[in-house]
Amino acid sequence: MTPQLLASLRAIVGDENLLHDPADCLPYGYDNSRREAMPEAVLFPQDHDQTVKIVRLCNQHKIALTARGKGTGTTGATVPLFGGVVLSFERMREIIKVDPANRVIVVTPGVTNQEVQKAAGEHGFFWPPDPTSAAVCTIGGNLAYNSSGPRAVKYGTPRENTLGLRAITGDGREIRCGVYTTKGVVGYDLTRLLIGSEGTLAIITEATLKLTPLPEAKRTLQAIYATIDDAAHAVSAIMAQAVVPCALEFIDGTAIEMIRNYSKSDLPKGAGAMLMIEVDGLSASLDEAVKKVSDAARNDGLVKLIAAATKEEIQALWNTRKALSPALRNVAPKKINEDIVVPVSHLPELTRGLQQLSKQYNIPIVNFGHAGNGNLHTNLLLDPDDPQQMRDAEACLDAVFNLVLKLNGTISGEHGVGIVKREFVAREIDEVTLGLMRQIKQQFDPNGILNAGKTLPDADAS
Question: What is the third-level CATH fold of 95-213?
């Protein structure tokens, strides 16, 4: 990057909002995928107008531009593959408006998910998406990945909970899309198009989010099963009855043993799988709702069903689930973490297939995740410094994706594509459809400066 261009960027954001020294830029070159590349500069825009000027300048000089929140993503979508500028929104964190009368909150992209929940909660509302990293992940990142978390099973993803966006295309055009109402069919739905596009089409600078009233009451259930199949069949039964749980989390037997070994949990030894089930709603009807869900959860493989009502009991049950991530980090700090999705009715077949692949390739696989959506986080445990294990893990992952697609699933539910899954996209999406997507990218970003090398495979690679 030339000194003149650097000076032009500094003039837009000020010296205090620009990093250029390699040592300062390094932390902005990687995310949770452990992939990394070095940016030439990191900018911290303060508002929409500054962002417009940055995008226009980068487009004029064909400088690669990568938008970034807090870097909690796991697929390398914020890694600046071609250097250039990383546009970090961590300092652009304004809650512009909370409008409880219309169930709306308007925010800038650097506001964290937790900050949105706090602001909405003061008025008796919440925003349904709740990724595990909610305390630190930003709304911009949530929208870029369409990240949702456990509550999506009942309340939907960011696509279902975002009304409108303000954004800047790759060539610097300012756009507003969506509505301020819960209905609206004028024009094409660019809001849903931009959400999940991983910053490859436009830079989001403002989001109008749809809020939901906080439930009056909530109950938590923990169901232990003899086998993974028993738990998977229970998920299908729960999702086939009228009461939709607000969370339905799955943890397999291998994960249960890890929790037992790395926490004070009293989970039974040899359990095949566990479901964490949360039911919310009106206090007057909650007992009946819990009964319906509990009845659906019961089958011949049920070992134990625990219901918690008090805050302390609920916290104790969820602490069991929260103990899993630290346990995994202890066992395999460099594991491969994928988030695959199949129709809920295919969960038994998926879990059986994953067990077979684990044995076939001699790669331990730990599965947990949002079973109510058919969305499992599949973790391949390996030593990346062992070449043979790496080859076996790559072959195993390839087979995992083939299994998922055979079951009419998708290779990513909420982690995105980024760099990590880009080579597999053409297996899921046909070439004609990919061609249309590339044309859309060209319309939004004619010089290809926005998050280049991500999400869509090149035409000759598909």
Answer: 3.30.465
Residue type, 421: K
Domain ranges of the chain: 3-88, 95-213, 217-406, 422-461
Q: Can you spell out the DSSP letters for 73-93?
A: -SSSTT--TT-SEEEE-TT--
Q: Are the C-beta atoms of 434 and 427 separated by less than 8 Å?
A: no
**Residue 292: predicted pLDDT:** 97
Q: Which residues contact 262 (CB under 8 A, 6 or more apart)?
A: 323, 326, 327, 330
Query: Taking Cα atoms as reference points, which of 138, 18, 169 lies closest to residue 72?
Result: 138
- Rounded to a whole number of angstroms, the distance between the first and last alpha carbons of the chain is 32
> Which of 146, 153, 143 has its CA nearest to residue 208?
143
Alpha carbons 102 and 220: distance in angstroms, whole number: 30
Mean predicted confidence (pLDDT) in 121-135? 95
Q: Say whether 449 sits in a helix, a strand or coil.
A: coil
> Architecture of domain 217-406 in CATH?
3-Layer(aba) Sandwich (3.40)
* Amino acid present at 353: G
Averaged pLDDT, 328-336: 75
Query: What are the backbone angles phi and psi of residue 380, rounded to the nearest 5°?
Result: -95, 115
- Residue 128: CA atoms inside 13 Å, Cβ hemisphere, count? 23
- What are the helix (H) ranges across 281-407? 283-297, 311-322, 324-331, 347-361, 387-406
Reading the block at residue 20, the tokens are 């250029």
Could you tell me which residues come within 8 angstroms of residue 315 by beta carbon, excluding any fewer than 6 positions away?
none
Digit-coded pLDDT (tens) for 144-181: 999 999 999 999 999 999 999 999 999 999 999 999 99
Considering only CA atoms, give the Rg of the chain: 23
Burial class, 32, CB count within 10 angstroms (exposed 0-12 / middle 13-18 / buried 19+): middle
> Closest Cα to residue 344, out of 252, 242, 232?
232
Parallel, antiparallel or unpaired: strands 104-107 and 95-99: antiparallel
Residue 10 pLDDT level (bands cut at 50, 70, 90)? very high
Please state which CATH number belongs to domain 3-88. Answer: 3.30.43.10
